[in-house]
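EI: anyone free to look at a 233-residue chain?
SC: sure, send it
EI:
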Amino acid sequence: MTTVARSSRYRRQSDTGLSRMEIMEGAALCFEAHGYSATSIDEVAARIGSTKGRVYHHYASKAELFLDVYRTGMTMIFEAIEPYLEAELPAVDRLRSVLKAHVLCVIRTKPFQNVVSQGVDMLRHGTMPAKEHAELAHLARLRDAYSDHFLTVLEQARAEGAIDYRNIKIALNSVFMCINGPIVWFTPRDNQSLEDIDLLAEECVLYAIRLLGVTDERPARTHPRPTHEGATA
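SC: here you go
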């Protein structure tokens, strides 16, 4: 198992504040709704009620904006699971907590996670110019490092006898199908409470751990943020 990345590897090199995040939030919604090819800078500007000049002040191109949204999506989801990676818990409970943190982040930051998913497909199909393609490949390596955290917890839970599988990569991919599902099918409702979202996340985790041979029906638990060097605020 290779050494996995810490959160600093996922962060942007610079951040000019809220205006940049507002642009990314608008862009993420546009990319989610229409895909990369059908989204224009004009559409992003219209989404945030601004001019395209403001967007171009921060981003030289649509590709650069897309890549920053991708990178930010990775930051969000890594920071969601990081506090639980080294929690002093049985490995299966740590697994539950990490899975649930992932699902909740997917739901709360769905447009950004949709862009991450799009980026994976774009790398596979080579739909960006060489310079941007190289950055996509770099981001894909960070995504692989993110997956390594899950591999580690799976191995620990198996060593403790809490789960079982024959092929860890198949097990991991099956688990990710469950916990990434909301990217495809989740649509927020106006009357949806935080409790509703929490129960939805627990259901996703329940199906994921059943694939690993855990048959009890305890809810996925979240725990107080452990104190360790890598934790983020």
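EI: Residues 71-210 form a domain with the Tetracycline Repressor; domain 2 fold (CATH 1.10.357.10).
SC: 👍
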